[in-house]
Design brief:
Helix content: 25-40%
Structural class: alpha+beta
Strand order of the largest sheet: 1-2-3-4-11-5-10-9-8-7-6
Largest sheet: 11 strands, mixed
Low-confidence stretches: 1-10, 254-263
Distance between the termini: 33 Å
Number of strands: 11
Mean pLDDT: 91
């Protein structure tokens, strides 16, 4: 079963808001695609005067997908190439994507979705409900209406997660990026604590009827107390009053530029909470084939599925 697409007509918060694109400015110059309402990040290609672009991380979203091809046509030779990962709730099909991205369209990551119209007790197995009850015996969770009050605690948690999971490049957000992100309309912050001490936090981006699980981080005590069970339960319960779907995302690092997804404990964990799945696509377009080929040749690269080839390995 596929999720609805009605959120595209709602208020442009979350990943659609210009403040979110601005929070990523240290990774590239934000540029709005005015017809479709999406955002890309223009970047100088290392060692070159040429530029290319990537979609807003982690997902490229549009208000009007039917106009995306017009915006891309206007980009013309300004950029060498563009790579995006599509919002799995976008109002498109594969044919639409191939029209916009004739060079690469690949199923990338399966996203796990929660239908928030369904009571949690009807979704979760007895084993998961037990883990939730156990977590809540040691953990309290709250919604943080003033995110900036918890910025330092979040940054400390995320830095720890970055070291634990070797997070790098665009995924290693700086404090400056988070400070901007914490002002984005639609951001919701949830805090898990043990005896008053913060042990985990989750960031959610609300975009119309869709809530996107943006980031989650815990410290060692949070892992020992299974705080993620309490965080997931609490945010699902809270979001159900004004959203239809929660996108728990895919599995970080499970696929690289269209590579096959890998099984993992995180994949199984998210599947326990999910009622549906939907695919996000990796898409690429070469605007200037001659320059693209020259850059690849200058780097002495062999055959690769990575796109763009000259940025191979940038995400670790």
């Amino acid at each position: 079963m596929q999720a609805t697409q009605t959120h595209l007509t709602q208020q442009a918060g979350g990943y659609l808001h210009p403040a979110y694109a601005a929070s990523l400015a240290e990774f590239g110059r934000p540029r709005e695609l005015p017809r479709c309402g999406g955002w890309i990040l223009e970047r100088q290609i290392p060692g070159r005067t040429d530029s290319d672009a990537m979609g807003s991380y982690p997902l490229f979203a549009c208000r009007d997908w039917s106009c995306l091809h017009l915006d891309l046509a206007d980009l013309g030779p300004e950029l060498v190439s563009l790579a995006v990962v599509t919002d799995p709730f976008g109002d498109y099909d594969e044919a639409d994507l191939r029209r916009c991205f004739p060079d690469v369209v690949i199923p990338f990551k399966e996203h796990f979705l929660v239908d928030l119209s369904r009571p949690l007790d009807t979704i979760l197995s007895g084993k998961i409900r037990y883990q939730v009850r156990k977590a809540f015996r040691a953990v309290t969770v709250e919604f943080c209406p003033e995110p900036m009050a918890f910025l330092d605690e979040w940054v400390a948690l995320y830095q720890g997660a970055s070291q634990r999971f070797k997070i790098s490049s665009v995924r290693a957000f700086s404090r400056v990026a988070f400070a901007k992100m914490f002002h984005v309309p639609g951001l919701r912050v949830y805090r898990a604590a043990h005896q008053g001490q913060t042990i985990g936090m989750a960031l959610v981006m609300v975009q119309g009827e869709i809530a996107f699980g943006h980031l989650i981080a815990m410290n060692d005590l949070g892992y020992r107390l299974d705080a993620s069970y309490a965080l997931y339960w609490y945010q699902i319960d809270q979001l159900a009053s004004h959203c239809r779907w929660l996108d728990l995302g895919g599995v970080p690092g499970a696929a690289k530029n269209g590579g096959p997804a890998e099984g993992s404990g995180l994949r199984a964990y998210k599947a326990h909470w999910a009622t549906d799945t939907r695919m996000a696509y990796f898409c690429g377009r070469i605007f200037d084939p001659a320059r693209y080929a020259a850059i690849v040749q200058a780097q002495g690269l062999g055959p690769t599925r990575y796109f763009p080839a000259y940025r191979q390995g940038e995400f670790g």
